[in-house]
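Lab manual, section 2.4: Encoding a predicted structure.

Procedure: take the sequence of the chain (442 residues), apply the prediction step described in section 2.3, and record the output as structure tokens. A sample record is shown.
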Amino acid sequence: MGTKNTPRQKAFEILLKIHISDAYSNLVLDTYLQKDNLDSRDRAFVSALVYGVCERQLTLDYNLSHYLKQPIKKLKPEVLVALRMGAYQLLFMDKIPHSAAINESVNLVKANKSAFASGLVNAVLRNISRNGLKLPDEKDDKYFSVKYSCPQWLVDMWSDAYGNENAESILRCSLGEVPIYIRVNTLKTDADSLISLLKEEGVDAEKCDSMNDALVLRKQGSVENLQAFRNGLFHVQDLSSQLCCKVLDAKPGDNVLDVCSAPGGKAFTISQYMSDNGSITACDIYESRVNLISDGASRLGISCVKPCVSDATQFNEHFTKYDKVLCDAPCSGLGIVRRKPEIKYKSSQDIDKLHNLQYLILCITSKYVKNNGTLVYSTCSLNPDENVDVCRRFLSDNKDFELCDISDVSNFGIIQDNMLTVIPSNKDTDGFFIAKFVRKGE
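Recorded output:
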């Protein structure tokens, strides 16, 4: 059928792997692209198709279901993947001719042991081509869920927690192209110099008004291949994560602990605020991930970061008391669904299990904070159960801590009881949560 080495076949294989194994799209995509010699145009097409199908899955299934006699779940995985790919091209990729989207989807099922379904795929996709995108009535409770391809429980949670307007802005920002932000390594260069160097490599970079020493990249391709990256002049880090480091407010000479550090981006930015003067103990439970911190610090020329294997759920008697402690806790990732769209398809029951782990880690981490020292708790989740509720429980059980005023960063989102929820639409960032505590001196 001539599909074996085509970009659509690669996208099909990646999507089938994600569908069957429940793996993260970015990890599977990276693995496939690294071993295939696709040119830049084909790589871009495969990436757009894979991410697009993943993030629009509920919308695609809603449209497919109008023309299927059987439930979506009863389709053979290969057939469902081919249908989703075809529907995505028809409904959301304007430059793809409808005939190509339909014919190539039919070829995919024929080439992947599903020729019996070629007539079904052809008929369903022709109906979608003819009738266009279908959505529920705007007054229907399912409207936002289908329009933004987001489970109803998550739509309801965001509406209840942040209001309808913020909830829709979160949903809107969960789709489409994701900006690439980088942090200038101020130990080696400055923003203007880095912008000039990147321009020489064919990359457009612009300063971010909302964050000093942060740049957004345009037309960047593979960041790791840039000479400026290899020379350690920057690291990739979203604005919300950079904001977390700013709130910690580490100074030169401080003794800092980062309990859930890997791959190390926050520790690297904190070291720059400290002018690489002081000490940052950067931990992770797995040695392989601690090695990522070591490699990053070496590339950036940072000496104050001390990578360390340590389990954040267990008190480490070898640790001392620290001036500044960062607890960026493991979380559901509901603030980064635009980067990992499959996160939003998790069940609410899976996410409900996390807050007790987060509370445990926060309580243990607090034991390392010296009197009058600072503790920052953060997550990349938009879920009150993982955020404000964990912090309120912590304050109730730990009377020697109190929240600090962080109203100076309120332009990034919503301040509630001196705790910040970063709303993605405010500064085109990932969703995030930040709370800053101080341990009262005796």
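Check your result against the sample. The two ends are 76 Å apart (CA to CA).
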